[in-house]
Write a structure and sequence with these properties.
Blueprint: E1 7-15, E2 21-29, H1 35-44, H2 55-67, H3 69-92, H4 102-107, H5 127-132, H6 147-165, H7 168-177, H8 179-188, H9 195-198, H10 204-221, E3 239-244, E4 248-249, H11 250-257, H12 261-267, E5 275-276, E6 283-288, H13 289-297, H14 299-306, H15 311-320, E7 329-334, H16 341-348, H17 352-358, E8 371-376, E9 409-412, H18 419-425, H19 430-436, E10 449-452
Antiparallel strand pairs: 1-2, 3-6, 4-5, 7-8, 9-10
Helix pairs in contact: 2-10, 3-6, 6-7, 7-8, 7-10, 11-14
Length: about 450
């Protein structure tokens, strides 16, 4: 077999205080390895999950150890933080510890990773599968990004798939493409049950998925042999938790304690907006165990201070950011002949940009029969829906009896206002505002004068 001796030339530019720059070139000679050597090393780490070695697997070993070494180095830096969490979760369910390497293939050990299919987190859960395994998400918090909760869900999901196929290789394939596609490949292969026997019948991505897993498993067990340093580049503290059941501004909390905000968000990546919303119940906030006693002793003051910063601004953003589902309920709209995004948006009192975001539409093209997810405000119902949809002939809201009195006041619309925010601030409803002001849509503009009914 041919040897793989690779010479990398690294150019490093150093700037001195006098404004002089100088380039230094360093050579990195990577260790040799042959097909047979890798095969022998692979046989030494065989455990419960088969690690079948072939040219396809070798190609991925070459990629991660030679072509994209910086990517691999970046992953190695994070393994000390996440691998103990994975091992603990796998041990809880008596599952093979080597399954922890699957998260490397899924996300590169990035808890905030989001795929093109909108799969999220270290274990890349899509919304529907996440909900099946108890991972919820909203504008503030995404439990799919929680290393502990997502790991527990991934263990249960993988265990379900293993019990379904009685094969770890097929369970891994099903984790990537779904059990339906694996069953289809089994049928097309003549009901064979080995991954490599059904290989050519699987989706293209899945054909690469299991070989990548084998390559990563090998590489992380033989980092030294491929010239990678296995020494952590930073210290990760032992973590403990405190319970939060209120609105909670993370940066304010960190400032009071003298903790680094970036570190706190690293330990709690499921917090997307730097705060926990009103109505939070028993949220387990991770922090260094050595700080817990200090927090508990000053709990009342720290919690009260963290509850007073940024609340209104974040609530406004939560409800008005395009694509936000915060405080909304999902319904489905089946596209009919003549429908366009504009009419659908007016029908449900939402924005076109919202519909595009909720359904991951790149353009405005929709097709008859297509089911669109629409997130409406709780006030939307079969009784109120006509308030959002203008009459096709008159472009006016259907008449509805709303009493107007001398006590009603007027309000001048300011920049950033919406009918929702105005209705909440004035103890009325969007429907009453639209009827009182003969509004055919939710569109308002700064400077506009609105009648506020009682």
């Amino acid at each position: 077999m041919t040897m793989r001796r690779i010479l990398f030339i690294l150019c490093i530019t150093i700037s001195f205080s006098e404004g002089i720059t100088q380039e230094f070139y360093l050579n990195e000679v990577l260790p040799d390895y042959t097909f047979d050597e890798v095969a022998d090393r692979m046989s030494c780490i065989q455990n419960e999950i088969p690690l079948n070695f072939n040219e396809r697997v070798l190609a991925f070993i070459d990629y991660f150890s030679l072509k994209d070494r910086e990517y691999t180095r970046d992953i190695i830096k994070r393994k000390e933080l996440y691998f103990p969490i994975f091992s603990s979760g796998l041990s809880k369910y008596n599952m093979p510890d080597e399954l922890k390497y699957l998260a490397v293939v899924e996300s590169g050990l990035r808890p905030n990773a989001i795929s093109r299919a909108n799969a999220v987190g270290l274990w890349q859960f899509i919304s529907s599968t996440g909900k099946i395994y108890g991972l919820g998400h909203n504008w503030y918090v995404d439990e799919r990004m929680d290393p502990y909760e997502a790991t527990d869900a991934a263990c249960r999901h993988l265990l379900d798939l293993y019990q379904m196929f009685d094969s770890w290789e097929l369970a891994l394939a099903a984790y990537n493409c779904g059990p339906g596609n694996v069953r289809k490949a089994i049928r097309r292969s003549g009901y064979k049950k080995d991954f490599w026997d059904i290989y050519r019948y699987l989706p293209r991505e899945t054909r690469s998925y299991v070989p990548q897993y084998v390559a990563i498993t090998y590489l992380f067990n033989h980092l030294d042999e491929h010239g990678f340093s296995d020494k952590p580049d930073r210290f990760y503290p032992r973590l403990d938790t405190i319970q939060i059941s209120q609105y909670f501004h993370i940066e304010t909390f960190c400032n009071q304690l003298g903790l680094c905000l970036d570190d706190m968000l690293l330990w709690n990546p499921q917090i997307k907006r730097g705060a926990l919303p009103e109505g939070t119940k028993n949220f387990a906030l991770n922090l260094p165990s050595e700080w817990k006693d200090s927090v508990v002793s000053r709990r009342a003051y720290l919690y009260d201070t963290a509850s007073k910063v940024g609340k209104k601004h974040l609530e406004y953003l939560a409800r008005n950011t395009p694509g936000s589902t915060y405080g909304r309920e999902r319904i489905h709209h089946k596209v009919r002949s003549g429908d366009v995004l504009g009419t659908i948006a007016r029908q449900y009192g939402v924005r076109i940009s919202d519909i595009k975001s909720w359904n991951r539409l790149r353009g405005s093209m929709i097709r008859i029969g297509q089911r669109l997810s629409i997130w409406v405000l709780p006030s939307y119902s079969s009784k109120t829906k006509n308030l959002y949809m203008p009459n096709k002939r008159t472009n006016k809201v259907p008449s509805t009896n709303v009493s107007i009195s001398r006590n009603d006041k007027r309000y001048t619309v300011k920049s950033g206002d919406s009918l929702w925010s105005i209705s909440k601030n004035n103890n009325t409803t969007i429907e009453k505002l639209k009827i009182a002001n003969r509004l055919a849509s939710n569109k308002i503009k700064p400077g506009q004068s609105l009648l506020i009914p009682n």
